[in-house]
Amino acid sequence: MPALTDCRVGRGPYWPPDRPALAGGPLASSRAFRLPERTSGLAGSVHLTVNSPITLRGAQRASNTSGDSELVAPNRRTSAIAFMFSGLTLANLVGTPAGTWLGQMVSWRATFMAITVIGVVAMLAVALLVPKGKPHPVPSLRRELSAFVNVHVLLAMGITVLGPAAFFTAITYISPMMTELTGYSNNGVTGILFLFGLGLFIGNLLGGKLADRALMPLLYATLAGQALVLFAFFFVVESRVASAICVLLMAGFGFASVAPIQRLVMDKARAAGAPNLAASVNIGLFNLGNAIGAWLGGWVIALGFGFAAPNWVGGILSTFALLLAIASGWLTVAHGVKRNAALPCAAN
Question: Is the pTM of this model over 0.85?
Answer without folding.
Answer: no
